[in-house]
Protein 1
Amino acid sequence: MNIETVKCLIIGGGPAGYTAAIYASRANLNPVLYEGNMPGGQLTLTTEVDNYPGYPDGVSGIDMMNDMKRQALRFGADIRSGYLAEADLSARPFLLTTGDGDAIRAETVIIATGATAKYLGLPSEEKYKGLGVSACATCDGFFHRKKDVAVVGGGDTACEDASYLAAMCRKVYLIVRRNELRASKAMQHRVKRADNIEILWERQVSEVLGDENGVTGLRLIDKTGSEMTIDVHGLFVAVGHHPNTEIFKPCIKTDEAGYIVTKGKTTETNVAGVFAAGDVADPRYRQGITAAASGCMAAKDAELFLLGK
Ligand code: NDP
């Protein structure tokens, strides 16, 4: 079998991966980048990005990711669609296999696989996924125009989703399990200012109700066990994310939640020559700008590693 050998393999097409590709290309590492199942990453699910420096009027997440990709291509990065299915990181050069079964030997690997939305774990939620239950308001909000919907969660994503949906839906319920929001003050203000968002405090979804056409309502429960139902046409789940580290776990050290552990202020993992950047290694900040910055760091760490420094 003909196995391709690369100096620097970047896994993941979000801000961390593309930024790593820009820096690695400019350092003549001839990086190969696999974009994964969601090219552009989580920012393609957001509407307007208002907090990324350099865009004083905001920018759409999709446009920003396309710009980053084009910038990496300009410097010669080899950007491929597809994902990595297996990773043997026990010895260098590392041996990785793509979803199409192609084998790649890599002298260095930058893991930038990001994080994926969590769900509540209810059987009824599973039943109505794609029939009114969604984790992406910007993808699926359109299907609920002028209808009532619910968002579950109390973080920035939930508040952003609720605001986005409020602009097109008749009413949005925001279901929060505690008596306060985790979201930033600016985001909280936006939600509380909207006329058609009602926050249901200290309640959890116990069942998604529906018929053959999809979601029709939710059963909610409070701390005392008291139940209520609301009529909604859709449920948007915004309860956080889990890092995409499954294929690396046998070799790469992660914390309890699965986030890759890096050394000090570097992107080095416990395996020499393997680096991690972006949300996959960041349970704390999880911002586009911090992901991009750590992508730059990972490329520089890989360059220094290959130079033997
Ligand atoms: P977070 O982890 O910040 O928030 C998750 C929310 O979901 C919390 O309110 C949590 O409740 C709630 N939750 C978790 N599990 C359940 C459950 N089983 N049932 C009900 N509620 C549940 O995730 P986000 O995705 O909101 O944000 C992730 C990161 O991305 C954050 O750092 C955020 O600041 C950032 N972000 C920034 C944006 C921006 O700046 N434009 C936009 C979106 C995200 P509890 O509070 O009780 O734990």
Note: The chain has a mean pLDDT of 95.
Protein 2
Amino acid sequence: MNLHQALTVLPGVGPKSAEKFRKLGIETLEDLLLYFPFRYEDFKVKNVLDLEDGEKAVISGQVVSPANVQYYGYKRNRLRFTIKQGEVALAVNFFNQPYLADKVELGGTLAIFGKWDKTKASLTGMKILAQVEEDLQPIYHLTQGVSQASLVKLIKLAFDQGLDLLLEENLPQVLRERYQLMPRSQAARAMHFPQDLAQYRQALRRLKFEELLYFQLQLQLLKAENRDFKKGLALDWQEEALEARKAALPFKLTSAQERSLGEILQDMKSGLHMNRLLQGDVGSGKTVVAGLAMYAVHTAGYQAALMVPTEILAEQHFESLSQLFPDLRLGLLRGSMKAAEKKDLLSRVESGQVDFIIGTHALIQEGVNYHRLGLVIIDEQHRFGVEQRRILRQKGENPDVLMMTATPIPRTLAITAFGDMDVSIIDQLPAGRKPIVTRWIKHEQLPLVLDWLDQQLQVGAQVYFISPLIEESEALDLRNAVALEQELAAHFGVRAQVALLHGKMKAEEKDKIMQDFKDKKVQILVSTTVIEVGVNVPNARVMVIMDADRFGLSQLHQLRGRVGRGDQQSYAVLVANPKTESGQKRMKIMTETTDGFLLAEEDLKMRGSGEIFGTRQSGLPEFQVADIVEDYPIVEEARKVASQIVADPSWRQDSNWSLLAEHLTEKDYLD
Ligand code: ADP
Ligand code: MG
């Protein structure tokens, strides 16, 4: 056996179930071994006297009253009995699981997982445990057709067959010794079947280090390539023409825009390969800076491409660049183009009759050939990882690359997360902007907000509603959003058209709904958080975020940034009843400042509280087990080690590091 074999080599896995596992990203045996739980349930037996009200825990004790099942109505029923743990007697209730009565034997001992109700001194049972269960039960992300039980069974099977022993070590001995890291196969086993918390933590530490070290190595290798003079373009742009363009703008650039543009221009002029990240809060004026950089490239006799995540954003940029540069030849590449139209555009691009080309990922993927491509700008970079950056530089003449992001990331973190790139920051908004007014309300005050929304709708405002995020389950996430849409539609009736946008929709569907919203055919747009950011609908002036305390500050700031794009006053309403101090603090800070960088710094400080969901959409790279914010100390250590390793030009020949080189080559990160 080898671990690259498909899952179907396991007994009991046919093509049909393999298809289901594929949806979880599990295709090979190795994928299965490395498909880690995202959390654990603690099944260690607790003392009932130590439990807090509402806590879920395992209680064990002796059954001291016979099981009694009561029925109500058509199907509902309750199984009741009493157990004694030490000297404490407590009532146990199971709802609608009458068959469990068979397991309840007077005088016998049971371990029950349930929820403790302190005032009633009773446990609402969720599960009767077999006598010898592990203390920590892994919980996996699931998909339609794959249950916890079936996943656990398959993983157990793989480990029982000893497949974990085939997992190859990918960290050199010296590093494992230096940091006391357990072997890879041992770590994988401990993730699925931890003996105790301490062992799990050690396993996690090892896997995080592994993941972050490889990430840092990739970054450092890219960076080293960027420093190679022979490999970059030296663009000789025309100073005077550029100055004239700037002077013709309807406004004066802010000093932060000037500084960033200067940094970009300098990079482009030098023979170094530019790989720069342009950061600026929503509305800080990145587009103009990008446009001027593109124009500079044009004066040097090269083409420039602007790549964005969605078609609707592509259109938006096409429009604003057409306004800024009416005399240039702009092309918009769209997926929905007719074949003839597309062919015509592509041939004009190839023969150099197009100066700026704007589009989605198709710009670099399909057979798009450029006449002389000098600059590629990538907007909202968060789905453009280090891997894509590497592919891009292998295209054509190795054009300069500028990435733009509206997510404010503190500089220190940006350097670790995007170590191969230089960073420019527009940390200043153009004068005269109206800050978004942010209010925090409790759920019970929602009716007041709905009344106020009616007034807003009457004066023509449009509204975003963000439905609560349920990280564990996409299905629940969606159900929540649908429910919210229906409630709002029922509430507003003919007074507003309500539409729903969610992550499971096809790109065209999403674009269609966004277009309807832009065209004011829809007044209230309900969406899950997994949808695109960056779309500009100036008339959308109100953003309501449900269960706002589930989000980190940066994410809330991103969401809020979708309003406040027109001249009218905009509002953000955070609906939340936070249970923790940190949750309350976050809500309060949001109402007090609109400074994205300040919020990002606060976000960093408050991370690790464990109650904020993932780094998704925060603009930072995502990992399987590591979190670039929470694991910052490991990130830093990995960065140090990686740069020490690659600092020696002949590191690949060093027997200490050959293992790393091998794995990087296998993944195509090295030639
Ligand atoms: P973002 O950084 O979010 O992409 P945009 O580039 O879309 O921001 O700019 C937002 C708005 O601000 C645009 O309407 C743009 O014309 C305007 N703008 C950009 N720079 C300035 C400036 N220096 N002074 C005044 N308005 C500006
Ligand atoms: Mg923008």
Note: Confidence is low (pLDDT under 50) at residues 609-617.
Protein 3
Amino acid sequence: MAVFKKNIWMLYFLIVSITLILFTLLGYNKWDANREDFVDKQHLQVELFSTSVNSLLTSQEALLEVVGHQLVQQSDFTRTAALQIRPILDQLLDTHPAIAAFGLTNKEGNFIAVSSNLSLSTLPGLMERPHTRDSFIEALNSDKMILGRTYFHESLNSLIIPIRKAISLPGKGVQAVMTAGLQLNSTLVFNDNTHYGDYNELLLIRADHFRQFESSPIHSVARYNETVDANMYKVITAKVAEQHDISIEEIKLSNQSYSIATSDPQINAIVTAKYLRDYKLWVVGQTDLTYVDELFAKEFLVYFLVFILLHIGFYLLVNSIAKSEMVAKEQLVYQASHDPLTLLPNRQYMRNDIHHWLGNKTKPFSLLFIDIDNFKSVNDTHGHDFGDKVLKQISKRLINIHTSECLIVRESSDEFILLTPRNHEQDVKALAQRIIDDLAVPYEVNDSQFLLGCSIGISMFPEHGNDLDSLLRAADISMYKAKKQQNSFSIFTSEMQETHLYKMKVEQRLRLAVENKSLFMVFQPQVNADGSTYGVEALVRWIDEELGFIPPDVFIPIAENTGLMNRLGTFIIESSIQQIARLHQSEQIKFGLSINISVRQFMNKRFSEHLISTLERYQFNPDLLTLEITENLFIEDLSHVKPICESLHEKGIRISLDDFGTGYSSLSMLKALPINELKIDKSFIENIHCDQQSLTMVQNIIAIGKNFGMIVLAEGVESNQHFDVLKECKCDLMQGYYFSRPISSEELAVHLNQQETKYAEFSI
Ligand code: C2E
Ligand code: CA
Ligand code: CA
């Protein structure tokens, strides 16, 4: 059934085939029944005709017999006898209108007496003419009435059948022959209505193959002088015998009618034959098969037309269903392969279509991976409906740029892919620049105007890959570089590939490192303005057996992008808290611990839960813990970040905003979130002693921090000069190589013993 559902035409053809077969069977049955009707009709016709003929002839024979005997017994056959007999014969004529004339002959065939409508003197003897001689002789030798050949009597305008009966007296043999003329037009038996129409006829055929009677009026009387076609006679008798599996002799003896339908070229008719034994006559009914079949064809034509009409209707119905199914299918295919928002082809479409591009290596092409910069912030700030409108505008602009040979695809929310046959570097660069320029034109949505940029990573076929995945990967790698600059493009190079491979290697080794815990923590002291130790920042370290030392700047982003950050973060939190908790106990001093938390960790649902349980496990006072987060966190959904920060804050954990001044944070955000500490990025400290701009910047940040009631920490303090300037600026805390490099917990124990620690001063 599923197959038929798939293809309605199969079902259609099956139904058509079945109905065609049924219709053919019905047609055949009708055709057969029609012939059968005619056979039955003709059978009846022949039976009735045979009975009528037989009874007519039998009655005539009885008449001849009775009259003949009477005459023979009374007469001496003298000349006067003729005169005596004539009135008797005339009287008989009056009472028997079917008889045209009566005559009585002697054994030699000479007439002794005739009815008065004949002239005895002119009438030739029956032995004198061949056609009368045969029947006369036959009559002499038979005790049955014999029929002579039918002839046409002009003055009577009728066909006449001579009938003769030898009259014998017991012990004396044949005395005379009684003869008469049966006038066919005077008897109902032989009238023209014995046949049904032109297509049907009744025949009486004699043993000598001459017609005794033929019902069809269209045939001339001349036919009575001809025998029936011997061939036809043979064919009929042979076919009847063959189809009924009976011999001719058996048919003759059976006194039954036999019917056949034959399309023999000579006959082509329904033939019914019966043999009248007493008078040696074949009664044959014939109905023209062409007529019979034409009649069937006429009747059946109506059925046929209805059948054809129904089928045309059925075809139209199926066709319309198939068409609407096709439309629905096309719609589904379209929906599955197009992005509903921008109506651009989607990733699936590209995957299906890519073989057109890859098929011919002699036709290079370029793949442009277009990523809208900071699109997330549009959605976050204005909502998704607004974002959708912007995306529609972006796609329209891209459509305006692309030519018929290009394929433009919406890869995911704010990522588009453009495939272009352009492959010369200059052309592709020009195209990329045009895209950047066009997308940089201000957008206007809901009466607000704003700007967006995009980054484009470009890969080329076949240099950068032989399949879609490798081309996408290459474009993605080059996109990474473009993203760093924003609003720019970058074409894939082999160096990028190397960097990429290196990153892959790092990722692979990092996985092992996380598993094997071959990572470790170091701690960098954070000091008060008076030089006493305030706390430490935990920094992760990794020395790989194969790759050697890898800075966290390198592997942290890799861990973030490969889903390793949560496991790595768990390790960092657990090991830092465990080691510092141990120092708290062993050294009996309280100092703060700052842990860097990546955005990825922060977004994990179980982050807080895990942090709190770790603190509890190591009995670490939450008041001593600071989480360093970067401003990147605020690019994420603020409604998600805020409650987490607040709940942590409520538990006494502090939040420090790391790398302050390098990101996107706005002052309103500082107010919205429970931030305890601002950490000035080391890039601002570097030249603080010699560059007025850096100094002003640092002074401003410190002022902002104080305004919001936050502690301000400066990192990257490398010299006494830095320290002095920062003290003067009233910076609360400092961290840098000037005080200590990041050190192991054992080294930290020694370091703490040499320093004074003052944590409580800033506790809130
Ligand atoms: P960050 O959080 O800004 O960390 C401070 C970085 O400055 C550390 O580099 C530290 O060694 C370095 N530093 C300290 N004093 C000075 C100085 O006087 N001069 C200079 N030039 N540098 C100084 P590190 O350890 O290589 O870390 C680099 C970055 O890696 C960190 O920047 C942080 O973003 C990330 N990172 C390091 N450890 C972790 C960690 O455990 N978790 C997370 N999420 N990120 C970490
Ligand atoms: Ca930090
Ligand atoms: Ca920093």
Note: The longest strand covers residues 158-169.
